[in-house]
Amino acid sequence: MTAIQNRYEFVYLFDVENGNPNGDPDAGNLPRIDPETSRGLVTDVCLKRKVRNFVELAKAGAEGFNIYVKEKAVLSTTRATAYKAVEGSAKDEREKVEQGRKWMCANFYDVRTFGAVMSTKENNCGQVRGPVQFNFARSVSPVSPLEVSITRMAVETEREAEDQSGDNRTMGRKHIVPYALYRAEGYVSAPLAAQTGFTQADLDLLWQALINMFDHDHSAARGKMSARRLIVFKHESALGNAPAHKLFDLVTVKLKDESKPPRSYGDYDVTVDAAAPTGVTVEEKI
User: Fold this and answer.
1) Is residue 154 part of a domain?
2) Which of 51, 150, 166, 217 is most solvent-facing, going by the fewest CB within 10 Å?
3) Band of the pLDDT at 271, cuts 50, 70, 90?
4) What's the whole-model pTM score?
């Protein structure tokens, strides 16, 4: 299949209820916050991780849809497979790196989608600029994380049970956001897609992942997370027909009653201006 021929941008709205959408390991795993505005943050890396997890689940190792960056993966060992596949067909090291790069793009969905830095000393496969990129997601309204005390009616060892004199309760804490609606924005480059072989089927799988990935990512820490809107702007050309920021401005999200803290998606009004620039069509996936 040929690579996509059109440029895209998209606006992605998702929310969290009584959960931690993206903890900060440098702050005791507290929900990430912009300290100047108190708006919640979710990193692009976090969103890409969920897309990878969904693709791995949906495709189950199907040819061409392996995942390069996954839990406990040894990246140099994974790249060794590429070197073995192109062994004997390259005349020098430079050509070997280039063939390894192409092999990685063809076989790993996340490499041809998000790109990867594979130019290390061992099994060098070069660098790939991915056609799909996300901005950090930011909450529409300020958030006030809560620290909630929790108990566990058990202990790990007999010594702990003896030290507690028969009281097996273990105290702990978890950090949650009572409610927040997050807005992320993203880009899909047709010229970069041509370099990695990112096809229409890959793009359709990306939309599918964004729509469904939270339904397969539930945990006690993350609470209730849901995809709410996915608004896609499709350009007629590969280079694009309008600046991305003007398209993002067509989507407005406002709190209905600013005197009350939001506690559900219904507390917001989401509007999409139908007057898109010439050469751009609007597709609402959710």
Assistant:
1) no
2) 166
3) very high
4) 0.91
